[in-house]
Amino acid sequence: LMQSMNYANTTGEIAEEEMSDGDDDIAAAANSWNEGADNIDDAEEFFDWEKIVHEAENGEDDSSSFDMEGVEDVPTDDELLDYVSDDDSVFDVLDEGIEMKAKGYKPELPPPNELSEDSRALLFWRHEGEGKSFSDWKIKVEAETTDDDDDCRETNVTIYNVHRLTLAMGPKKSDYFEALLQSDSYSENSDCMSTVKLSKEVAKQFPGFLDYLYAQPLESKFVINFENWKSMKHLANYFLVPRLTEAVAEFIEKDMEDYNLEHMENYISEFHRDISDDMSRRILPKAVLICAELLQSIEVDSPLLMSIPPAMFRSIIRRVQIDEDDNQMALHTCSLIASYLEHNVEDRLVFSIYFCDYVLFSLFGDLHKSEETTIELALTWFRLMTKKGWTFEYRDEPCFWGIEMVKEALADILRDYLRSKTPSLEMMERIV
After folding, report:
1. For residue 310, what is the enclosing H or E element?
2. In whole angstroms, what is the distance from residue 370 CA to residue 384 CA?
3. How far apart are CA 204 and CA 206, in angstroms?
4. C-alpha distances in angstroms, 76 versus 47, 89, 392?
5. What is the C-alpha separation between 340 and 355, in angstroms, rounded?
6. Which residue, 280, 289, 242, 217, is CA-closest to 87?
7. For residues 431 and 414, what is the distance between their CA atoms, to the nearest angstrom?
8. Where do the domains of the chain lie?
9. Helix-strand-coil percent breakdown of the chain, rounded to 5?
10. Nearest Cα residue to 423 out of 372, 374, 380, 385
11. Contact 351, 84 (CB under 8 A)
12. At residue 387, what are phi and psi to the nearest 5 degrees?
């Protein structure tokens, strides 16, 4: 198609020249136009665009429409989706303006809120055993280690004296305990005790879970912190406490809005594993914006960078706003992408589709090509693409536009540098 269109443009230019020169042979010019148009018609007929679009929309295999002889290891759409394992729409966020933060940015924050004395006085479960007990229910928590060896597995048992009214009523009630306590069919009702098995990590935070249920409604969220949010989320799901699930989500959102970059890896690692979860779809888009704003503070070898899935990372870098004169920011962003690709991406089709367009048009064009740091970066990219085997193969259309155009942009950087400076012998050898 490209050859046909280029030929059409060429013949059209010839026709214009003949007509502008006053050539009497207008018929020849018209024939040139017609010949170019015929080529385009032939190309459109060959590719049958309506058929291709129809097959794509209906998920049909259209590989038979193209001659891919000589192309090896080109993944199918399903294989590509399996590799990426992300639903891109999860990371789609409104293009609201973001404010890029300086490296090391950390706002001054007030100390975390704590339960008031009135709320602490309501933690009746903590006062059981101090004299007369008013408890009418017990929760037996069996904490199990995660050791796969049954002989080495240990179980620690803790019994909590609690109150049915607090567990099963009120705005923070547990639907689990409400159903349990309203039915006589459960064996637990005979001895007024329920037994739950939790991991050692989650069981450690069970007292905080009880504090949440007992504290005043407006203050109960103060119980949640970075050390226990994951366990609280698990307990909210286990005991069916929707109010606690919402409180955990609000805590995470506020923690991210406070630009706690050191916590981002924990959140991303937890939520990108199941992007169908409602909380994941709530947290991940906000994480995209925060990571974009704090991009200058993300190091090329940071665990955070390596924990981000490809679709999310692409969404982050596409929202980065770089000043035309900020060469350092452009360099840092290109370096981050190169480091990310080196450790997280192997498939050249993923590289081409996900990253090349942004790198080519929004980053390479902003680099100051006369600086040696830019040349170092260009050489790094060349080495990366060679190491990964990201090359263009004959008739490999899906990868052509990304990979070949990025290579050409890198070559332009080197050419401009050589035109503007006389490099050292060592640098010249590296470039060659």
Report:
1. helix 310-318
2. 22
3. 6
4. 19, 20, 17
5. 11
6. 280
7. 7
8. 2-61, 67-109+277-432, 112-257
9. 60, 5, 35
10. 372
11. no
12. -60, -40
Using H for helix, E for strand and C for coil, what is the string for 204-241?
Answer: HCHHHHHHHHHCCCCCHHHHCCCCCHHHHHHHHHHCCC
CATH class of 112-257: alpha beta
> Which amino acid, 350?
V
DSSP string, 262-276: HHHHHHHHHHTT-TT
- Compute the CA torsion angle 323, 324, 325, 326 (nearest 10 deg): 50
User: How far is residue 245's CA from residue 251's CA, in Å, rounded to a whole number?
Assistant: 10
Structure tokens at 12: 């059209």
Q: Which residue has the tokens 């490209």?
A: 2
Q: What is the DSSP letter of 418?
A: H
- The angle at the Cα of 355, spanning 351 to 358, to the nearest 5 degrees, equals 155
Question: Is there a contact between 118 and 216 (Cβ–Cβ < 8 Å)?
Answer: yes
39 vs 46: CA distance, rounded Å: 10
Strands 155-162 and 193-199, bridge-based pairing: unpaired
Question: Each residue's pLDDT tens digit in the chain (432 positions)?
Answer: 556 555 556 666 665 665 555 555 555 555 655 555 555 454 444 444 455 445 545 555 444 333 334 434 444 444 444 444 445 566 666 556 678 888 889 899 899 899 999 999 999 999 876 667 788 999 999 998 766 556 667 789 999 999 999 999 989 999 999 999 888 767 777 788 999 999 999 999 999 999 999 999 999 999 999 999 999 999 999 999 999 999 999 999 999 999 999 999 999 999 988 878 899 999 999 999 999 999 999 999 999 999 998 888 988 988 887 777 778 888 888 889 889 989 988 877 778 777 776 665 556 766 776 677 888 888 888 888 888 888 766 555 556 667 777 888 888 888 888 888 888 888 888 888
53: which 2 tokens? 């679009």
Q: Three-class SS of residue 45?
A: helix
Q: What is the Cα–Cα distance from 39 to 419, expressed in whole angstroms?
A: 40
47 DSSP β-pair partners: none
In angstroms, rounded to a whole number, what is the distance separating the alpha carbons of residues 99 and 34? 53
> Quick one: tokens of 335?
């370096």
